[in-house]
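Running this now, will post back.
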Amino acid sequence: MVHFFILLAAFITDWIVGDPRSIPHPVVYMGKCISFLEKLIRKSVNEPARKTAGILLPVLLVGGSYALTALLLKGLMLIHPWLAWLAAVWLISTTIATKSLADAGLEIYRLLKEEKIEEARKSLSMVVGRDTEFLPEPEIARATIETVAENIVDAIVSPLFYAAIGGAPLAMAYRAANTLDSIVGYKDERFINLGWASARFDDVVNYIPARLSAVMVVLVSGVLRLDWKRCLYVILRDARLHPSPNSGFTEAGVAGALGIQLGGLNYYRGVASHRAKLGDVTRPIRMEDIRETVTIMRLVSVFFLFLCLLGIVAGLLVFSFI
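Update: finished.
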């Protein structure tokens, strides 16, 4: 039952505390390791061989994150079990980002409501990769909704899923995989060879959580009295149109539930990128849709936590009879 309470405590810790800037975050150190490994590979391996060398990134960082976390917890357990349990709670909480995601979305909503559009663009630029300098209010709202919806998988469901299965070591390994993809998984000239393995690995580890997330979004839409039928229909119709094999499930679900259309034209470093449109235009996107999306995200996190805890209890019961 210790695993049950560790996961619950980690979720509550993230919900209340989030990611304080005063406390070093493991992702920062992962980023430094990625930068070091990237420079080392570029210095040691010529371009044609970097596609093969790219496999080393997920092997070393994901495997290393799992091993280091497991060794740390084992060492702390030898000192005192409570030290290991508290460390596991903190480490798992750093892989979840319910509070940070909600705070970012609601901050942009607040700035739009106060008609501080320049500040809203600046806040948006901190959480998305697209150009935000000249975005009008509806496009700021769309970008915010898309990033909150997409990160339901990466920042909530996937880390909870892997923490429930393998505790802090597997949750940290997942966060390493996701961090790798966000840094080197881009399909541009710089990372086309070096980052392909990281991008594919991230697709694989998010495959099941993305589809579980879609089910959660449909369920939550019904609870919130949104259009859950359209939510399900749009997921089935549009989710696979997204360039990511996983992100489209929650984005399409949110679009269907709210009766809006996501996707369309974005600019990245001045270059136009046409994304598939998800959902139907039943009305224009409003700033209030940001708040609705955050509510969906929060409720999905609670429902999925309950599912994970139920899974842990069921697993304990099964093993007790074996």
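The mean pLDDT is 93. More later if anyone needs it.
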